[in-house]
């Protein structure tokens, strides 16, 4: 389990994806108006913010602060995880989970 957060440690969860241009407007509206509120209503999902890349890799990124690994196992999260109506349209999915190094401010 080297490098992974301990079960009760908070960490940052980042998801990066691409979507075809013809679906971007609907995807972005769904993400902001439906997906973020649904996730933030789940226990352990503390904050959420979206980004657009200025470099290489998938165009869109979402960064979440999660209270612990347990937040991925709640019934509430299991109902809203994934990309909903865009599941089959999302490409180049990437995920990274980061925890603070000791001593970081």
UniProtKB/TrEMBL annotation:
<protein>
    <recommendedName>
        <fullName>DUF4286 domain-containing protein</fullName>
    </recommendedName>
</protein>
<dbReference type="InterPro" id="IPR011008">
    <property type="entry name" value="Dimeric_a/b-barrel"/>
</dbReference>
């Amino acid at each position: 389990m080297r490098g992974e957060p301990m079960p009760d440690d908070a960490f940052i969860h980042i998801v990066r994806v691409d979507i075809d241009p013809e679906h971007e407007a609907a995807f972005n509206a769904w993400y902001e108006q439906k997906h973020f509120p649904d996730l933030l209503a789940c226990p352990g999902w503390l904050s959420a913010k979206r980004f657009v890349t200025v470099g290489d890799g998938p165009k869109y990124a979402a960064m979440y602060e999660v209270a612990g690994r347990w937040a991925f196992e709640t019934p509430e999260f299991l109902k809203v995880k994934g990309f909903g109506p865009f599941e089959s349209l999302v490409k180049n999915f990437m995920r990274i989970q980061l925890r603070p190094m000791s001593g970081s401010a």
